Prior knowledge:
Blueprint: H1 2-10, E1 20-21, H2 27-32, E2 34-35, E3 53-57, E4 87-91, E5 95-96, E6 102-103, E7 107-108, E8 114-115, E9 118-120, H3 128-142, E10 149-152, E11 167-168, H4 172-184, E12 187-190, E13 193-195, H5 207-226, H6 279-285, H7 315-323, H8 340-345, H9 362-370, H10 385-404, E14 447-449, H11 450-453, H12 456-473, H13 475-504, H14 518-528
Parallel strand pairs: 2-4, 9-14
Antiparallel strand pairs: 1-10, 3-4, 5-6, 7-8, 10-11, 12-13
Helix pairs in contact: 1-3, 5-10, 10-12
Amino acid sequence: MSLFAMGFLLVILQPSSGQFPRACANTQSLLRKECCPPWDGDGSPCGELSRRGSCQNILLSQAPLGPQFPFSGVDDREDWPSIFYNRTCKCEGNFMGFNCGECKFGFSGPNCTERRLRTRRNIFQLTTGEKDKFLAYLNLAKNTPSQDYVIATGTYTQMNNGSNPMFRNINVYDLFVWMHYYASRDTLLGGSSVWRDIDFAHEAPGFLPWHRVFLLMWEHEIQKITGDENFTIPYWDWRDAEDCVVCTDEYMGGRHPTNPNLLSPASFFSSWQVICTRSEEYNSQQALCNATSEGPILRNPGNNDKSRTPRLPSSAEVEFCLSLTQYESGSMDKMANYSFRNTLEGFADPRTAISNISQSGLHNALHIYMNGSMSQVQGSANDPIFVLHHAFVDSIFERWLRRHRPVLEVYPAANAPIGHNRENYMVPFIPLYRNGEFFKPSRELGYDYEYLQEPALDSFQEFLIPYLEQARQIWAWLVGAAVIGGVITAVLTGLILACRKKRRGTSSEIQPLLTESEDYNNISYQSNF
């Protein structure tokens, strides 16, 4: 625990990436619908005097949405973030942040001109010291208040359209738990009515880009509160695992000796309190989660419904998923067939890619297997295994991007479920990020995965796979073309040989002169063909 104590002494509180900036959570900003805080470096809004950015109107996508959400004007998250703000900082160059005070992912330095590439590693490849430091960082985040962000405890209507702000403080770790809840919560329709078929982070094309941003922001926040600029999230490679091998006191917390639903008291995660897990209570009260503590982390891995999730995912299932060439398909939701996204998310069978919502595969399988806090979507980030799991899911997404090399246009521009079109801003992030901005290789965002770097042969194989896949799809045509070509060649060769044989049988006195004639050229062309 010495690392934990040192962390508090060394904590460096700088501008962060998250939800509602504290500087904009006030009556004036809400009524003006403007969130353009000054940058400390020059005191100007968005660092405009230093040419970091400027306060500009938000340009919202006008592309049509899918039919899954048949309402308009009833949810604060529609056309994010326009209900709260329609002017925010637009940063220039490699600058980023709610006040353009930071660098884009993958850049560093005082002017954000230095490229950085960090490597995420397998948690079981960390040294004991590295692993203990990671655990201490998690605990530090759970006990460090966010200096720059607050959470909303009421809807915009409940805030009287901005004249009665409803926000509260929150610690760094729970800030991300709350953001995951807020993106996936139900729509409150008034009275006791809710609309459940809505999710700005799951069940649609944005699932993978959204969680990619989420992890980058979480990683970035840990780097700042610890002062450790080289920190990266480790991943748990759960392929073919027999059980939850990270569920030990040495790692993410073992099983309680007398209550199998709780964590071992030997793990400091056993003292953690969860938030945002009582969705039915919030719905009945037409209220938002206000981050009140709701009890300890629950986890009982392997004692889940085996008819839904019989085991953890296999390597073969991951490989089949990676072979799928379509990122998205059909309705672009959890009913999509032959969709890489839907298969990896777990709503389609990982052996056929056919939608089957009665089963949980790949990503979803791990959540269900944990049989506790991880198994309820809105509150799943309470369990710290969440970040290990989603880092590995992101690595599978990265493998697919490298294998198939999709252009940006592969990501749907229109008709996806609400919030998931390419140009939609992701809920509930401020600064603003569009879905399509993170549909690109991780190296362009400043990070890589250790197991994707080695050996070199794997990279060569990944390069060849898309071409081999295309060849497989047209092999019948290629074989047919080869057979027809062979037949034509054989017939022509036979005709030419027959002509030559007949010519040799003609006396030299009556043979025509072919040298440098038009007929000679024709015969040569036909022979070559």
